[in-house]
Amino acid sequence: MFEKLFDFILNFLEFFRCAVIRNQYEDGLVLRMGKYHRDLKLGFNFLLPFYLERFRLVNIVTKTDNIGSQSLYSKDEVGVLVSVFIRYKIRNVKRWILEAENPAEVLGDVTYGVIGEHVLAKTWEEINRPQFHTDIFTTLKGIASRDLGVSLEGIQFCDLTRSKTFRILNT
Which residues pair with 156 in a beta bridge? Predict the structure, then answer.
């Protein structure tokens, strides 16, 4: 009973919110009636109340994501197990917030795709050369910057091994 009353009071007060503070480790923007209006400045920012202006803040410090494992075949039909960590920083908050649904997940999916394309196009011998890592990083860096407003700072292969793959269900 008291939880519902407390939630009601908080929601009521949120309706009258007229300011937001942007911290140094964040960046953000203001939407006026659902449309991009302006970027938030560092520190204190005024807002129009009654949900006429809403704000979105994101943490812009360097992040890492474990992209997980992929079981693929190389050009010469060698089974390859690949997993990577990526390190990135958000540079364009407007693009990050407004142009992708769950952008961190999109970045992971794009990474899967780029790695898959590169593995399928190379032989096992080519995959073990340093140029393979550089090619993937260069491709991902361009896509991340152009599509998501992210500066890719690095990728690190956790696994890059030959593996036997048995596909039981071919769906």
Answer: 85
pTM score of the predicted model:
0.85
Q: Which residue has the tokens 């009071």?
A: 9
How far apart, in Å, are the Cα atoms of 123 and each of 44, 71, 76? 55, 15, 5
Q: What is the mean pLDDT of each run of 10 residues along the chain (171 residues)?
A: 85 88 97 96 95 95 93 92 95 95 94 95 94 96 95 94 75 58
